[in-house]
Amino acid sequence: MQRHSPALLFVLLAAVAVHAADKRPNIVFVFTDDHAPHAIGAYDGWLKSVNPTPNIDKLASEGMLFVNSFCTNSICGPSRAVIQTGKHSHKNGFMNNGNTFNWNQQTFPKLLQKAGYQTAIYGKSHLKGHPQGFDSWTVLPGQGLYYNPDFITPKGRIRVEGYCTDIVTDMAVDFLKNKRAKGKPFMLMVQHKAPHRNWMPALRHLDLYADIDIPEPPTLFDDYKDNASPARWQELEIDRHMHLNFDLFLDLTKEFNGNAIKGRIDKSAWRNMQRMSDEQMKKWRAAYAPRDKAFHEAKLKGKNLVRWKFQRYAKNYLRSVRGVDESVGRLRKTLDELGLADNTIVIYCSDQGFYIGDHGWYDKRWMYEESLKMPFIVHWPGTIKAGSKNTDLVQNLDYAPTFLDIAGADIPKDIQGKSVVPLLKGKTPKDWRKSIYYHYYEYPSVHMVPRHYGVRTERYKLMHFYHFDEWEFYDLKNDPDELKNLYNDSKYASTIVDVKEELSRLRKHYDDDSDVSVWPKEKQRQFRKGAE
Ligand code: CA
Questions:
Q1: Do 171 and 27 share a structural domain?
Q2: Which structural domain range is residue 458 located in?
């Protein structure tokens, strides 16, 4: 028998340890912006019939789809901060899009690095400042542009020609092929701008859905008569607030009397398009010019105009979605080609849900279902039963501890989320949460959705617009579209007491002591704008 010196034995043992570490799974986290679950075929929403996402549907059919997946604060930057930290907005300090993320705080990528993972992020960060905790990174400044966008890199700013979703996918593919560290598992975050406003599809998708009508949401003409007052004085309606040029790129040059660039709103649209090359612009105009001409000739009014705007909006949104769906397909193909697929977890999710004409709206922010829900689909070969659907209540708060759990790393006590690894293995713990906590802060601000907090259980939802001291309560089992506010319904009085108690418990549990004061009546009146 061969004899080894102690030093050689140590080297051999260390080699075994590294080899063991190799077996921990890689994670590819594909994260998009504003992609609502009901715009994913696998989620069975009213958009399913247009087959919006074949690649994401395939991922779900081979993995696990979370039906009850929610954000904690339905807006871009804050959702990302929650994911980085595993803590609610009031704990990680990034409550509004206007905030700057404190990158010096504890984040899961830093902890993954310590645990021996290689980490990388490409695409939209939306947290300001240079990312920390990543071995490789290239991010968009702010919202970023769809065409020929700038990127911030550790070496400075660069401009890359092409379509943003494709460029970010290129960076991720390059990481997989050329930048992986030997002997280390990796966490690769692929964070797309799409399908965020202003919805600009790739040139190859401009004719997608051109020959069909997108089904209208059942609540397109909601009159909000049963809601608390904020739903009546918001500013996110397709009818009153979605702009034909800024949002829908309708050519209004004639209407602006040749002063298109001088018009504030038209100038904003121009900002999004000015990066296009002459060739890109030519193709764009060729696709939209006949549609714009038909629109001007039709002289639509009232509901017909809303219907036209909805079609243009939903089509451009779903065309932008198709770009990210193709990204998922390309990334999985690359994992296959490199022999990495069997030991790589692929996750698809987006920072919050979105209104695609639901309740007559676009945008997000509210605690209503369409913007509260997040898509969350996990593919983990050999661990997840293919095609499974999980109905436990999960949140973006849970991602950080889940990643640490996957890596076999310690989960710090101050992380507020819970690892969903047991759920992925089909074994929900008996004490899994029975309710989720929500708190939205960005007000007064664009779209004018007031601050509110609330609780959602499997069946009920209670929301408090505290500055205005107005409440809403919904029975989601009987009213999934949330059209009947039951807060003053005596039949639900004792249930509401119970749910309010649960809300108080959650506020204590998550230690949310942020200011939730009721505004003086005069201040309330100024903001309600006579919409009572
Ligand atoms: Ca978003």
A1: yes
A2: 439-528
Ligand 1 mean position to 321 CA, how many Å? 13
Distance from the alpha carbon of residue 97 to the mean position of ligand 1, in angstroms:
10
The last residue of one of the domains, among 425, 455, 477, is 425
First-residue to last-residue Cα distance in the chain = 90
Does 386 lie in the same domain as 471? no
What's the gap in Å between 343 CA and the centre of ligand 1?
Answer: 30
User: pLDDT by residue (tens digit) across 200-243?
Assistant: 999 999 999 999 999 999 999 999 999 999 999 999 999 999 99
Domain final residue pick, 425, 453, 476: 425
In the reported structure, the alpha carbon of residue 497 is separated from the centroid of ligand 1 by a whole-number distance in angstroms of: 33
Q: How far is the CA of 174 from the centre of ligand 1 (A)?
A: 26
Within this chain, do residues 405 and 465 fall inside the same structural domain, yes or no? no
Q: What is the pLDDT of residues 361-402, one digit of tens each?
A: 999 999 999 999 999 999 999 999 999 999 999 999 999 999
The enclosing domain of 180 has a CATH number of 3.40.720.10
Q: How many CB atoms lie within 10 A of CB 239?
A: 15
CA of 351 to the centre of ligand 1 (A): 5
- Same domain for 407 and 481, yes or no, is no
How far apart are the C-alpha atoms of 280 and 500, rounded to whole Å? 54
Long-range contacts from 151-156, C-beta under 8 angstroms, 24+ separation: 154/130
The tally of domains found in the chain comes to: 2
Q: Rounded to whole angstroms, how far apart are CA atoms 462 and 507?
A: 13
CATH number of the domain within which 466 lies: 3.30.1120.10
Q: Please list, in sequence order, all residues whose beta carbon lies within 8 angstroms of the beta carbon of residue 67, skipping any fewer than 6 positions away.
A: 43, 389, 390, 391
**127 falls within a domain:** yes
> How much distance in Å is there from the Cα of 223 to the middle of ligand 1?
25
**Would you state the pLDDT for residue 245?**
87
Please, what is the average pLDDT of the chain?
Answer: 93
Residues 408 and 520 in one domain: no
Measured in Å, residue 253 CA sits from the centre of ligand 1 at 30
pTM exceeding 0.85: yes
Distance 134 CA to ligand 1 centre (A): 22
Task: Name the 3-class secondary structure at 475.
Answer: strand
36: CA distance to ligand 1 center in Å?
A: 10
250-277 pLDDT tens trace: 987 776 655 544 444 455 566 678 889 9
